[in-house]
Design brief:
The protein is α/β, with parallel strands linked by helices. The protein has helices at about 5, 10-20, 35-40, 75-85, 95-100, 130-145, 160-165, and strands spanning about 25-30, 50-55, 65-70, 90-95, 125. The chain has a five-stranded parallel β-sheet with strand order 2-1-3-4-5. Helix 4 links the parallel strand 3 and strand 4 (about 90-95).
Amino acid sequence: MGVGGVLGEPIRFVLNWGRKYSLWVFNFGLACCAIEFIAASMGRHDFIRLGVIPFAHGPRQADLMVVSGTVTDKMAPAIKRLYDQMPEPKYVISFGACSNSGGPYWDSYSVTKGVDQLIPVDVYVPGCPPRPEALLHGILTLQAQIARERSGFGGVQRDAASLTAPMVTRPL
């Protein structure tokens, strides 16, 4: 029996609490919703007070990817590659109608019908563009989900294949 079995619930609580209040964000801003993301990180709304550090140096230092704006088919491989570079546990917020479902451009030949077609999404924030308060609500919703995580020791279930996989997969 490992440490997770002996001290399971208290350790899980502490690890989830730490993850919940130290989210490093990788912002993948593609259109007008990215401006609202920036507004949410400024002094008036200040999501740093929620334990969210707004700008990670890159995907390898990020816990949370916020995709905001229209996801085109041309950008889809880049989003997938950057998501794959993020370490576990990783979370995604889809911010705005365009990243949720294609928005007003849903019927365009070159628009992906939502970022969830490419990567798993934890929280959807609706709006066109959503207000900064909506992003704050999305962050609080994600933090509540993180606090309830129960899968594996430390909230992450890893298999041997994921530990030996290369950092970046080559595009086909």
